[in-house]
Amino acid sequence: MADGNTGGNNGMLYMIVGALVVVVAVGGFIMFGGHMPGQSEKTTNIKVEIPALEKK
Predict the structure, then answer these.
(1) Sign of the alpha-carbon dihedral angle for 2, 4, 6, 7
(2) CB-hemisphere CA count at 13 Å for 6?
(3) Burial 32-41 (b: 16+ CB within 10 A, else e)
(4) Number of helical (H) and strand (E) elements in the chain, helices listed first
(5) What tens digit of pLDDT does each residue of 9-45 get?
(6) How far is it, in rounded angstroms, from Cα 37 to Cα 51?
(7) How far is CA 48 from the centre of its chain?
(8) 35 with 41: CB under 8 angstroms?
(9) Is the pLDDT at 1 greater than 60, yes or no?
């Protein structure tokens, strides 16, 4: 028999899915080089030199 509950209570499911969406959005922002305000930008200089070939 039906107990009369036709609306369902999916609030917890919506909260979990919303939290996962926020986590994925923040992770994507950080992974793709997003800079937060107040962070100093760090640079790295890399020098690559090719060794000279000896001539015979």
Answers:
(1) negative
(2) 1
(3) eeeeeeeeee
(4) 1, 0
(5) 788 899 999 999 999 998 888 887 776 666 666 778 8
(6) 42
(7) 31
(8) yes
(9) no
